[in-house]
Amino acid sequence: MNIKERLQRIWGTLPEGVSLVAVSKFHPAERIAEAYDAGQRIFGESRPQEMAAKQAVLPTDIEWHMIGHLQTNKVKYIAPFVSMISSVDSDRLIAEIEKQAAKCDRIIDILLEVHVAQEQTKSGWSWEELNDYLLSGELQSMTHLRVRGVMTIASNTDDETIVRNDFQRIKDIFEELKPQFGEAFDTLSIGMSDDYPIALEYGSTMVRIGTAIFGAREY
Ligand SMILES: *Cc1c(COP(=O)(O)O)cnc(C)c1O
After folding, report:
1. Does residue 219 sit within a domain?
2. Rounded distance, CA 28 to CA 43, Å?
3. Rounded distance, CA 203 to CA 175, Å?
Protein backbone atom coordinates (compact mmCIF):
# COMPACT_ATOMS: atom_id res chain seq x y z
CA MET A 1 0.00 0.00 0.00
CA ASN A 2 1.16 3.53 -0.67
CA ILE A 3 0.76 6.47 1.69
CA LYS A 4 -2.55 7.52 0.19
CA GLU A 5 -4.04 4.05 0.55
CA ARG A 6 -2.83 3.74 4.12
CA LEU A 7 -4.27 7.15 4.99
CA GLN A 8 -7.60 6.30 3.41
CA ARG A 9 -7.78 3.11 5.39
CA ILE A 10 -7.08 4.93 8.67
CA TRP A 11 -9.51 7.77 7.92
CA GLY A 12 -12.14 5.10 7.35
CA THR A 13 -11.69 3.78 10.87
CA LEU A 14 -11.86 7.13 12.68
CA PRO A 15 -15.21 8.22 14.09
CA GLU A 16 -16.47 11.70 13.26
CA GLY A 17 -14.72 14.34 15.35
CA VAL A 18 -11.49 12.41 15.81
CA SER A 19 -8.51 14.10 14.19
CA LEU A 20 -5.48 12.38 12.78
CA VAL A 21 -1.98 13.66 13.42
CA ALA A 22 0.21 12.04 10.77
CA VAL A 23 3.52 11.57 12.59
CA SER A 24 6.14 12.37 10.00
CA LYS A 25 9.24 12.59 12.22
CA PHE A 26 12.37 11.24 10.52
CA HIS A 27 10.59 11.06 7.15
CA PRO A 28 11.60 13.47 4.39
CA ALA A 29 9.44 16.36 3.17
CA GLU A 30 8.63 14.48 -0.05
CA ARG A 31 6.77 11.83 1.94
CA ILE A 32 4.83 14.52 3.77
CA ALA A 33 3.95 16.11 0.43
CA GLU A 34 2.57 12.76 -0.68
CA ALA A 35 0.31 12.61 2.37
CA TYR A 36 -0.64 16.25 1.87
CA ASP A 37 -1.65 15.56 -1.74
CA ALA A 38 -3.84 12.74 -0.47
CA GLY A 39 -5.62 15.28 1.75
CA GLN A 40 -3.87 15.03 5.12
CA ARG A 41 -3.28 18.43 6.78
CA ILE A 42 -2.04 17.78 10.33
CA PHE A 43 1.50 16.53 10.80
CA GLY A 44 3.40 15.68 13.97
CA GLU A 45 7.11 16.12 14.51
CA SER A 46 9.33 15.46 17.50
CA ARG A 47 12.33 17.71 16.86
CA PRO A 48 11.95 21.50 16.56
CA GLN A 49 14.62 22.16 13.95
CA GLU A 50 13.41 19.31 11.78
CA MET A 51 9.88 20.68 12.00
CA ALA A 52 11.01 24.20 11.11
CA ALA A 53 13.01 22.96 8.11
CA LYS A 54 10.04 21.03 6.76
CA GLN A 55 7.60 23.85 7.46
CA ALA A 56 9.75 26.15 5.34
CA VAL A 57 9.40 24.01 2.21
CA LEU A 58 5.86 22.66 2.51
CA PRO A 59 2.39 24.22 1.98
CA THR A 60 1.44 26.91 4.48
CA ASP A 61 -1.95 25.41 5.34
CA ILE A 62 -0.33 22.46 7.10
CA GLU A 63 -0.98 22.36 10.85
CA TRP A 64 2.22 21.41 12.64
CA HIS A 65 1.98 19.61 15.97
CA MET A 66 4.99 19.19 18.24
CA ILE A 67 4.63 15.76 19.82
CA GLY A 68 8.10 15.04 21.24
CA HIS A 69 9.82 16.26 24.37
CA LEU A 70 10.57 19.95 23.87
CA GLN A 71 13.51 21.71 25.46
CA THR A 72 12.73 25.25 26.56
CA ASN A 73 15.59 26.75 24.55
CA LYS A 74 14.09 25.36 21.33
CA VAL A 75 10.57 26.73 21.62
CA LYS A 76 11.70 29.79 19.65
CA TYR A 77 12.26 27.73 16.49
CA ILE A 78 8.62 26.71 16.23
CA ALA A 79 6.69 29.48 18.03
CA PRO A 80 6.06 31.51 14.84
CA PHE A 81 4.03 28.77 13.16
CA VAL A 82 3.32 25.73 15.36
CA SER A 83 -0.39 24.91 15.74
CA MET A 84 -0.23 22.74 18.81
CA ILE A 85 2.37 21.62 21.33
CA SER A 86 1.16 18.26 22.64
CA SER A 87 4.08 17.41 24.84
CA VAL A 88 3.92 20.11 27.51
CA ASP A 89 5.38 18.55 30.62
CA SER A 90 6.76 21.29 32.89
CA ASP A 91 6.06 24.72 34.35
CA ARG A 92 9.25 26.04 32.79
CA LEU A 93 8.16 24.93 29.34
CA ILE A 94 4.75 26.57 29.76
CA ALA A 95 6.38 29.83 30.80
CA GLU A 96 8.66 29.74 27.76
CA ILE A 97 5.81 28.97 25.34
CA GLU A 98 3.90 31.92 26.80
CA LYS A 99 6.93 34.16 26.33
CA GLN A 100 7.68 33.09 22.75
CA ALA A 101 4.02 33.13 21.70
CA ALA A 102 3.71 36.67 23.06
CA LYS A 103 6.75 37.71 21.03
CA CYS A 104 5.06 36.38 17.90
CA ASP A 105 1.73 37.89 18.93
CA ARG A 106 0.13 34.46 18.73
CA ILE A 107 -1.94 32.14 20.89
CA ILE A 108 -0.55 28.60 20.86
CA ASP A 109 -2.68 25.56 21.67
CA ILE A 110 -1.13 23.15 24.12
CA LEU A 111 -1.86 19.73 25.58
CA LEU A 112 -0.70 18.75 29.04
CA GLU A 113 1.29 15.53 28.80
CA VAL A 114 0.48 13.32 31.75
CA HIS A 115 2.51 10.26 32.66
CA VAL A 116 0.34 7.21 33.24
CA ALA A 117 2.44 4.42 31.70
CA GLN A 118 4.36 1.79 33.63
CA GLU A 119 7.78 2.74 32.27
CA GLN A 120 9.73 5.29 34.30
CA THR A 121 11.35 6.58 31.14
CA LYS A 122 8.17 8.07 29.69
CA SER A 123 7.89 11.81 29.94
CA GLY A 124 4.99 13.81 31.28
CA TRP A 125 3.65 15.17 34.52
CA SER A 126 2.57 12.89 37.30
CA TRP A 127 -0.99 13.59 38.35
CA GLU A 128 0.29 14.98 41.67
CA GLU A 129 2.80 17.36 40.06
CA LEU A 130 0.23 18.56 37.60
CA ASN A 131 -2.27 19.30 40.33
CA ASP A 132 0.30 21.24 42.31
CA TYR A 133 1.05 23.29 39.24
CA LEU A 134 -2.59 23.96 38.43
CA LEU A 135 -3.24 24.97 42.04
CA SER A 136 -0.40 27.48 41.90
CA GLY A 137 -2.59 29.59 39.62
CA GLU A 138 0.34 30.41 37.35
CA LEU A 139 -1.59 29.44 34.24
CA GLN A 140 -4.18 32.15 34.81
CA SER A 141 -1.72 34.86 33.87
CA MET A 142 -0.83 33.27 30.54
CA THR A 143 -2.76 34.86 27.73
CA HIS A 144 -0.81 33.50 24.77
CA LEU A 145 -1.57 29.86 25.21
CA ARG A 146 -4.75 27.86 25.31
CA VAL A 147 -4.90 24.55 27.17
CA ARG A 148 -6.83 22.25 24.85
CA GLY A 149 -6.58 18.95 26.73
CA VAL A 150 -4.28 16.13 27.69
CA MET A 151 -1.93 13.74 25.95
CA THR A 152 -0.25 10.53 26.97
CA ILE A 153 1.78 7.67 25.57
CA ALA A 154 0.49 4.33 26.86
CA SER A 155 2.80 1.61 28.16
CA ASN A 156 4.77 -0.10 25.45
CA THR A 157 3.58 -3.66 26.01
CA ASP A 158 1.71 -6.50 24.32
CA ASP A 159 -0.42 -6.81 27.44
CA GLU A 160 -3.66 -5.18 26.39
CA THR A 161 -4.92 -5.04 29.97
CA ILE A 162 -2.12 -2.64 30.87
CA VAL A 163 -2.74 -0.45 27.81
CA ARG A 164 -6.46 -0.29 28.62
CA ASN A 165 -5.64 0.63 32.17
CA ASP A 166 -3.47 3.53 30.97
CA PHE A 167 -6.19 4.80 28.64
CA GLN A 168 -8.85 4.57 31.35
CA ARG A 169 -6.60 6.55 33.70
CA ILE A 170 -5.94 9.35 31.21
CA LYS A 171 -9.64 9.47 30.31
CA ASP A 172 -10.47 9.91 34.00
CA ILE A 173 -7.88 12.67 34.29
CA PHE A 174 -9.27 14.39 31.18
CA GLU A 175 -12.79 14.33 32.62
CA GLU A 176 -11.61 15.54 36.00
CA LEU A 177 -9.71 18.51 34.57
CA LYS A 178 -12.36 19.59 32.07
CA PRO A 179 -14.44 21.73 34.45
CA GLN A 180 -11.34 23.82 35.31
CA PHE A 181 -10.78 24.83 31.71
CA GLY A 182 -14.16 25.01 30.04
CA GLU A 183 -15.13 24.58 26.43
CA ALA A 184 -11.75 24.84 24.73
CA PHE A 185 -10.60 21.80 26.72
CA ASP A 186 -11.82 19.27 24.18
CA THR A 187 -8.82 17.16 23.21
CA LEU A 188 -7.86 13.73 24.48
CA SER A 189 -4.77 12.80 22.49
CA ILE A 190 -4.27 9.05 22.81
CA GLY A 191 -3.51 6.27 20.35
CA MET A 192 -0.54 5.46 18.11
CA SER A 193 -0.09 2.94 15.27
CA ASP A 194 -0.27 -0.11 17.51
CA ASP A 195 -2.91 0.93 19.99
CA TYR A 196 -5.18 3.51 18.38
CA PRO A 197 -8.19 1.19 17.88
CA ILE A 198 -8.17 0.64 21.66
CA ALA A 199 -7.67 4.37 22.33
CA LEU A 200 -10.80 5.12 20.31
CA GLU A 201 -12.78 2.95 22.72
CA TYR A 202 -11.64 5.26 25.51
CA GLY A 203 -12.81 8.41 23.83
CA SER A 204 -9.70 9.55 21.98
CA THR A 205 -10.35 12.71 19.99
CA MET A 206 -6.88 12.85 18.44
CA VAL A 207 -4.74 9.92 17.33
CA ARG A 208 -1.04 10.26 16.49
CA ILE A 209 -0.05 7.73 13.85
CA GLY A 210 3.34 7.42 12.19
CA THR A 211 4.48 3.92 11.23
CA ALA A 212 1.09 2.79 9.94
CA ILE A 213 1.16 5.68 7.43
CA PHE A 214 4.81 6.20 6.52
CA GLY A 215 6.33 2.82 7.36
CA ALA A 216 9.25 2.20 9.69
CA ARG A 217 11.47 5.14 10.67
CA GLU A 218 15.21 5.10 10.06
CA TYR A 219 16.79 6.83 13.04
C1 LIG B 1 6.61 8.75 17.35
C2 LIG B 1 5.38 9.09 18.12
C3 LIG B 1 4.12 8.67 17.70
C4 LIG B 1 3.88 7.78 16.49
O5 LIG B 1 4.25 6.45 16.76
P6 LIG B 1 3.91 5.26 15.73
O7 LIG B 1 4.06 4.05 16.56
O8 LIG B 1 4.92 5.35 14.64
O9 LIG B 1 2.52 5.46 15.24
C10 LIG B 1 3.02 9.09 18.42
N11 LIG B 1 3.14 9.88 19.51
C12 LIG B 1 4.34 10.29 19.95
C13 LIG B 1 4.41 11.15 21.15
C14 LIG B 1 5.50 9.90 19.28
O15 LIG B 1 6.69 10.32 19.75
Report:
1. no
2. 12
3. 11
Read off the DSSP letter of residue 46.
S
Mean pLDDT of 159-181: 97
> 195 alpha carbon to ligand 1 midpoint, in Å?
11
Q: pTM score, two decimals?
A: 0.97
Residue closest to 203 by CA, chosen among 186, 181, 217: 186
Mutate to test the pocket of ligand 1, among 208, 209, 214, 219 (most ligand atoms within 8 A of CB): 208
CATH at 11: 3.20.20.10
Domain count, the chain: 1
Ligand 1 pocket, Cβ-based, cut-off 6 angstroms:
23, 25, 46, 67-68, 153, 192-194, 208-212
Q: Is residue 8 part of a domain?
A: yes
Residue 93 maps to a domain: yes
Residue span of the structural domain in which 19 resides: 3-214
pLDDT tens by residue, 17-40: 999 999 999 999 999 999 999 999
**Number of the ligand 1 atom closest to the C-alpha atom of 212:** 9
What radius of gyration do the chain's Cα atoms show? Answer: 17
- Per-residue pLDDT tens over the stretch 95-125: 999 999 999 999 999 999 999 998 777 689 9
Ligand 1 atom with least separation from CA of 193:
9
Cα 166 to averaged position of ligand 1 atoms, centre (Å):
16
